[in-house]
């Protein structure tokens, strides 16, 4: 009986149990974040002629630009509710719905009308994810690389506690104002090929409690009340029979 219980428990807490049965991927899975409203972007235009890029690389404060030095304090761009940014010289440019490489190409074509063979360096500055529930360190985490897997996100949160339900993680994702919900079982390796293996900016991962934690939360308060009542009755009895 003990052996059966041990095997059953292991099946509930071990990650990627069937990964050895899956063929190795010949190609590395590629992932690029899709730009969306409220993304804060850093966009730096480069050229063989640095002076020609000045109108496109506006500083946060006018008059604070020095050619030849690092471009620190360059203006940032927030994608508005229409999915657009207001880019210098060019004006309104719609970037929401594009992956980063597509946005780079679009801006390069537009800037090419003013600068010969420009370079575009675009980054999302406010890429973050949140991990809540039965993890050691729940919270919101800023991501510098613009790419993070579900397992890496759980690692940042200190991994699941023993009370986390590994077969039922909930991922909440918003795309173009529409929220999507996906249940993920990390005890199985199949989720590696899922669109939710890589997290998108602003994804929320919720780790639900398992039955042990749920039962404890129900029993705990009642047990406390019972013990408190017994203690009070015992105190009264002692006072009465002194």
From TrEMBL:
Cellular component terms (Gene Ontology): cell outer membrane; pore complex
Membrane topology: Multi-pass membrane protein
Segments forming domain Polysaccharide export protein N-terminal: 31-124
One biological process term in Gene Ontology: monoatomic ion transport
UniProtKB keywords: Cell outer membrane, Ion transport, Lipoprotein, Membrane, Palmitate, Polysaccharide transport, Porin, Signal, Sugar transport, Transmembrane, Transmembrane beta strand, Transmembrane helix, Transport
Compartment annotation: Cell outer membrane
Domain of life of the organism encoding this protein: Bacteria
Gene3D superfamilies in the cross-refs: Outer membrane lipoprotein wza domain like (3.10.560.10), wza like domain (3.30.1950.10)
GO MF terms held by the record: polysaccharide transmembrane transporter activity; porin activity
Transmembrane intervals: 219-241
Pfam families given in the database record: Poly_export (PF02563), SLBB_2 (PF22461)
Domain SLBB: 128-207
InterPro entries the record matches: Poly_export, Poly_export_N, SLBB_dom
Homology family: Belongs to the BexD/CtrA/VexA family.
Record protein name field: Polysaccharide export protein
High-level lineage: Bacteria, Pseudomonadati, Bacteroidota, Flavobacteriia, Flavobacteriales
